Amino acid sequence: MSARLIDGKAIAAELRVAVAAEVADLTKRGIKPGLAVVLVGEDPASRVYVRSKATQTVEAGMESFEHRLPADASEAALLALIEGLNGDPAVDGILVQLPLPAQINANRVLRAINPSKDVDGFHPINVGRVATGTGGIVPCTPLGSLLLLKSVRDNFAGLDAVIVGRSNIVGKPMAQLLLGESCTVTVCHSRSRDLPAICRRADILVAAVGRPEMIRGEWIKPGAIIIDVGINRVPTADGKSRLVGDVAFDEARKVANAITPVPGGVGPMTIACLLRNTVEAARQRRGLT
Ligand code: NDP
To answer: What is the DSSP pairing of strand 232-235 with strand 241-244?
Structure first.
């Protein structure tokens, strides 16, 4: 058996087309949604992410505002910038690229963003709303992962879902979303005992660990659906490098029913969902359903 590939690139492209259509509709009504992205410092990976977010925002017909602060910027300077963006009517979404330099308290910064413009969904108000099933902006990577799962089947009620990783940006919100889908959810982390045995129970396995190919083929239940969130750069024999996920793809593919590749799986969905969240925030702020 060879698992079906879940084509995140294609599904993200469809989502971007749908977002662009909504933007066109809003623009006709005189509303041009705007996304502000804030980058502090020169982290090369963050610069690449910020660039692609800005490019895709413009491609979807939205306004993109990029703000760059130096690596030694103070927390006060960043908070002042956020306050300005909170009050700026042209800005519907605010995203502060993580990680932030050590002198800045990321939690304080995330709390400073107006929850209605918090398109990353990291503000405690949005976290609480998602956890209580009362709306809220859903973080982009878990949202993208759920949409990929829904491309395989639309009803997950009663299935065993195992999430490896308990971060605030992926693991925990993913658990909330899958609970919302009526899965029986297990969340694992670095202190979990006998991870292979727990993974083997999973009808749905979400890997968000950050350890290259840690999850082996023999950890996977035959017929499982695998969402590999991990993005790990590993050296190759020719002195270059390549990206791999947290799941040993070639092994897992022989056992699973469907699996996301890395790259080309969850990655493209994250930015597409950011665009979707921005349009949604633009609508909600104006009371449009
Ligand atoms: P974090 O480092 O914040 O969290 C990693 C989690 O994995 C922690 O909960 C940690 O446990 C757990 N963990 C670490 N080692 C083990 C182990 N040996 N066994 C079991 N659990 C373990 O990472 P993120 O959630 O931010 O990201 C996870 C991965 O997803 C990374 O590769 C990242 O690059 C990728 N990513 C991809 C995105 C995309 O768009 N595709 C977006 C965001 C992230 P503990 O809590 O006990 O330390």
So the answer is: antiparallel
- Determine whether 120 is an active site residue: yes
Helix (H, G, I), strand (E, B) or coil at 206: strand
Shared domain check, 106 and 148: no
Q: What SS3 class is residue 93?
A: strand
Ligand 1 site-directed mutation target among 167, 172, 274, most atoms within 8 Å of CB: 167
Catalytic residue at 53?
yes
In a shared domain, residues 153 and 37: no
pTM of the model: 0.97
Q: Which domain holds residue 230?
A: 140-268
The residue among 198, 259, 190, 191 whose CA lies nearest residue 229 is 259
Question: Of 97, 176, 221, 228, which one is the catalytic site residue?
Answer: 97
Looking at residue 1, its pLDDT comes to 73
Query: In one letter, which amino acid is 57?
Result: T
